[in-house]
Amino acid sequence: MAKRLKGRNIILHDMCLRDGMHAKREQISVEEMVRVAKGLDDAGIPYLQCTHGAGLGGNSLQHGFALASNEEYISAVADAVKNARVSVLLLPGLGTMNELRSAYREGARSVHVATHCTEADTSPQHIACARELGMDTTGFLMMAHLNDAKGLVKQARLMESYGAQTVYVTDSAGFMLPEDVTERIEALRDALDPKTEIGFHGHHNMGMGIANSIAAVEAGASRIDASVAGMGAGAGNTPLEVFVAVVERMGANTGTDLFKLMDLAEDVVTPLMEKPVRIDRDSLTLGYAGVYSTFLLHAKRAAERFGVPARDVLVELGRKKMIGGQEDMIIDTAMTMAKERGLLKESAL
Amino acid sequence: MAKIKCALIGSGNIGTDLIYKIQRSELLEPVWMVGIDPESEGLKRAAAMGLKTTHLGVDGLLPHVLEDEIQIAFDATSAYVHAENSRKLNELGVLMIDLTPAAIGPLCVPPVNLKEHAERAEKNVNMISCAGQATIPIVNAVSQIQPVEYAEIIASLSSKSVGPGTRANLDEFTYTTSNAIEKVGGAKKGKALCIINPAEPPMIMRNTIYCLTADKPNEAAITESVLKMIKEVQKYVPGYRLVNGPVFDEVPQGHRVAVYMEVAGLGDYLPTYAGNLDIMTAAGTRTAEMFAEKMLAGEYNLKAMEA
């Protein structure tokens, strides 16, 4: 196994200022973002994502309001970094091309255009717009465990045809096991243009973030999303400094400084966390049941309010096949369950 | 009783479902179906249901408009071609019901403002979007009671019910719906979110409406207004149903009213999960009927007005 990674170049994309926003209920200040971004830049991280956790257009009652606008975050971070490229997340249906252009004006130069793993055809105008702006453009297939390798290939080819330069397999629920990752990435590598890069975005809900990312690189991925100190939704993303340590031992190159990343994780990012981002029974349930990681804190709040355990709500959301963006259905589901259990009165109708 | 003759432009999900809705109407009769692909399922079905069809786009219809006495056209193509379609048909005295996000005419949500539009004898009215039709009545019901600073709606649609036109142009859907939440819903600021869910069996259309009221909400009055509005919508979409709420919460942004709706369709062209299709086609049909009444009473004549 070690041999297969020897000499491989891995392009790292840090997520703690975007996915990590979920873990902080979107409450990271501009100053804190700048401090983390400077640390990432100094440690040689080539790409760092910074927006509201739900990306462009994310500020909403549905997804919460951040302390600052996306433009304010992007502009401050882009000014602060020397070499790193600033990236953003855009989910069609939530974010728009107007917001992408505005992010570009503030200094964003890379974008993950994200759709559910079966709905790539909602992204053509956004991918084309990103390419027109000259941005490094990724098509990001979320909840990828809900589509098989053949289906993902079809979706990835669509994104490639719209102009995506990289296509990601995104394990939003932290559900996948290494063999699931291998099968999907290999299929994409075989099917896509050799010039199209392949990426993997993991969540650590089953403790598989690192193993899955290694499997992805072995199968042909060249880009890996990870997060310093693992700060991200659910049990967090693939912990970046740990991944760097492991792949260095395996002989791969990331172009980053491991000790600087360790210090950044320990001294700057971990103290930002309100609660440790770790695998507990609820985040483990996300991974086990295949539920979107961002649902975690919403489910905990709904549980508290309506007296239905968060785990029961999460399992029910998994059963109803709710996907990213349907956070409103968490309260709705909790209320319906509370009514069934006699904890809440029927509504007026 | 005489009926107003109609043409349907666009042979996708919306256009095809419209055939059923219009055939059921006591005031309207579907005569022409216009498409661009001779092999399309919609055109074949229209022909089987007794409509005249053309696959040459609107230009294939124009020579027959006067002869076949077409007075109302429904456009379910795309925002990009709508303006041209509308201009050509208006010239021939045809009223245009726009089901694309083009929104060149006034925005119409039947229980909120249809009467006004019919009285002004507009020549083009826009039906916004399925999400708009499903949520703006609720925003309006709240803003009738007290000022709404901000309204946000989340529409969840089943993947099978969303056609290629909507998919390729999601931003137009977002912009048009957000704007209509303000203009028709009465919110100071509006935001629309849309999710396409591929679950099997397909999920029924769901809509969540959040309003932030400027002052502390009058809970009893808002609840009554929302329930009354739901009954109005149920007159043309019987499957429009309250699931949870209204729920009143104090959130960091202010006083939040949340309403959780579900829309089941009649199961005409697509099965009942596709309430998004029905709420659009039913609203379009209801709008056309209101104008048809005026036409039959001799109170609406586009060419006379232009003169």
Describe this protein's structure:
Chain A is α/β, with parallel strands linked by helices. Chain A folds into two domains: 2-272, TIM Barrel; 294-340, Orthogonal Bundle (Helicase, Ruva Protein, domain 3), CATH 1.10.8.60. In chain A, 46% of the residues lie in helices and 13% in strands. Chain A has helices spanning 2-5, 19-23, 30-42, 70-80, 97-106, 124-132, 149-162, 178-191, 209-219, 240-249, 258-272, 281-289, 295-306, 310-319, 328-340, and strands at residues 11-17, 47-50, 85-90, 110-116, 136-142, 166-170, 197-201, 223-226. Chain A has an eight-stranded parallel barrel with strand order 1-2-3-4-5-6-7-8, surrounded by six helices. In chain A, helix 13 (295-306) packs across helix 14 and helix 14 (310-319) crosses helix 15. With 307 residues, chain B is an alpha/beta fold. Chain B has two domains: 4-127 and 282-306, NAD(P)-binding Rossmann-like Domain (Rossmann fold), CATH 3.40.50; 130-274, Dihydrodipicolinate Reductase, domain 2, CATH 3.30.360. Helix content of chain B is 40%, strand content 27%. Chain B has helices at 13-24, 41-48, 58-61, 79-91, 110-119, 130-143, 164-168, 170-183, 219-234, 275-296, 302-306, and strands at residues 4-9, 28-34, 52-54, 70-75, 95-98, 124-126, 148-158, 187-197, 205-213, 240-251, 254-263. Chain B is globular, with a radius of gyration of 19 Å. The two termini of chain B are 29 Å apart. The model of chain B has no long low-confidence stretch (mean pLDDT 94).
- Level-1 CATH class name of the largest domain in chain B: Alpha Beta
CATH topology title of the largest domain in chain A: TIM Barrel
Percentage of residues in strands of chain B: 25-35%
- CATH superfamily heading of the largest domain in chain B: NAD(P)-binding Rossmann-like Domain
Strand content of chain A: 5-15%
Strand order, largest beta sheet of chain B: 3-2-1-4-5-6
Unreliable stretches of chain A (pLDDT < 50, length at least 5) are none
Q: What is the residue-averaged pLDDT of chain B?
A: 94
